[in-house]
Amino acid sequence: MGSCGALGWGLLLLGAVCGAAGEPHSMRYFYTAMTDPGTGMPWFVYVGYVDGEIFMHYDSTARKFVPRTEWMKAPGAVDPEYWERNTRNAQSAEQVNRVDLGTLQERFNQSGGSHTVQLMYGCDILGNRTTRGYYQDAYDGRDFIAFDKDKKTFTAAVPEAVLTKRKWEADPTYADGWKHYLEETCVEWLRRYVEHGKAELERREP
Fold this sequence. Notes:
The protein has helices spanning about 5-15, 70-75, 80-105, 160-170, 170-195, 200-205; strands spanning about 25-35, 45-50, 55-60, 65, 115-125, 130-140, 140-150, 155. The protein is about 35% helix and about 25% strand. It is α+β, with helices and mostly antiparallel strands. The chain is globular. It has a single domain, classed as MHC class I-like antigen recognition-like (Murine Class I Major Histocompatibility Complex, H2-DB, Chain A, domain 1, 2-Layer Sandwich).
């Protein structure tokens, strides 16, 4: 799963961001889909972080994205359709992950039990104003597949991921879309979030 590796998923539990230390700004989105989340817990959770602070949250119980910081709730922080648009995207991801959980259990020859799919993607703006992006998948806490945006290829971390790699690389528009998002869209939104949340984010700096 690239430079973060499986450790990045453990850091999520602590609200940290892999690779963000010493860098001016970072944004990460994490989602987790579980076959057995526990009684009363959502099976799908999707969250966004800016500079290590959670700023938006979605889960399969509420089924809508909501702001988690005051600066995201402020007038003018986002366009009028922002929350509806992101909610639709999250609902689509929820449905895709329901299918993926079943598909991966078949690939790993598993029947029943507790299983988890996780995705981390996002971007950094570095000290020299250059940028970098990440896209990494995990299954049951182990690296599964990662995207190299410079080569526009996917790296299968385990044999069971080879089918996914072949499928995604067979459609050039899939890699092109992620490359554009990580290099352009993600960075543009990160700059916008940092501008709107500047006062609060600066107060959190050590």
